Each structure stands twice: as C-alpha cells, then as structure tokens.
Amino acid sequence: MGETIxxxxxxxxxxxxxxxxxxxxxxxxxxxxxxxxxIDRHVRADVERWAKAGYEAIAPALYDRRERGFVAxxxxxxxxxxxxxxxxxxxxQALGDIAAxxxxxxxxxxxxxxGYCYGGSLAWLSAAKVEGLxxxxxxxxxxxxxxxxxxxxxxxxxxxxxxxxxxxxxxVETAVHAHHPDLPVYIYEGAGHGFNNESPERYNEEAADLxxxxxxxxxxxx
Length: 222
Fold this sequence. Notes:
Layout: E1 3-8, E2 14-20, E3 28-33, H1 41-52, E4 55-60, H2 76-88, H3 91-106, E5 111-116, H4 118-129, E6 135-139, E7 156-161, H5 169-179, E8 185-188, H6 205-221
Parallel strand pairs: 3-4, 3-5, 5-6, 6-7, 7-8
Antiparallel strand pairs: 1-2, 2-4
Helix pairs in contact: 3-4
C-alpha cells in the first residue's frame, strides 16, 4: 500500500513524495518522475507497478513549492496548469529534489530513475547531472533533443512515440546519436505522446509493455 512521505530538498524545503515498498524481494530503488499533471492516479499506478516488480519506488511531488498536492485532469485546463507549474519550476530545483530521493533510497541498494513527458526530460537530465544513479529510462521528454550533448553518468535508454505531434522522434534520435552513437533510442510505431499512460486517449498497450520490458531489463542489469 502506497504512502505519502516527506523529504527535504537541497534548499531545505520539505516536499511530499508518493512511496511504496517492494512487494517481492527488493531489487533496488526506482525514482518515478511525474508528467506535468502532478502525482495523479497514473503516477501512483506506476509506483505500484514498480513495487510489484520488486523495487522500492518513490515519486517526488515537484510542484509542492508552488501548489502542494497539485493534481490536474488531462484536459485543456489541466494541461495549462501543469505547463505553468513546469515552466516556473527551476531545473536545478527539480534535480535537487530527485537527488533527495536518491539519498533516501541509496542506503538500501542501487537507484534507477524513470520519467514520463516532463519527467522524461528530467530523467535524461538526471542521468547527466545527478551522481549515483545506476540507470535511467526517459520517455518522450521534450527537452532531450536540446540537451542531447550532455554526457550521461549511467546507462540510459530513450522511448519515443512515432506519431507524437510535439516531439519529432527521428530528430531526437539523430540528435542523440550525433553525440552518443550507441545509446538506445526506441521509436514505437503507432504510439503517440504519453503512450505509457493508461488514459484511454493516450495508452498504447503494445508499446507500453515493450518499453516497460526494456526498462526492467536495463534496471535489473545495471
């Protein structure tokens, strides 16, 4: 059963995080980084999914300094509110909160990170800027292309939907491979933005299952 806990960021601010212990013998820890909609039911479901796979999982509420407990619906109003919070959240602040989650988990074993949308960008940035991570899996992050030249400190894989209207998958792949020719960039045919999210308008079961299997393999071998 998941629980909300409190952690302290690098700036001393106490933020909330959704946390769940591993259901099976513990393989490590996973930091789950939210989409722009906050710690909603989809993020909590992903935390539970990782816990069932044998990982102690935690999802930091990255908007708590602006609006504690923020959760938005996947509609135009929710999208606007989430984008506003994301744009107003300094990147180093978000990375500091991710590092606090690493500190919380690392005494009990390796720590991996997975992120979706806004969190996909942060997963890529964390791989390059947050020391001590074992592996990172980045899903459809809009900031990956612009930051493709960063050097990851751990193994990373990237997942992109071929029909994502806002992220040109082939362009991201080209940018990443210009700097990291061997880094896996997976493009899922027929999948759009948010294909891991189980809302009916976004979910692509085939792509989500394959991406999760690839991510589990990465984390288990890291």
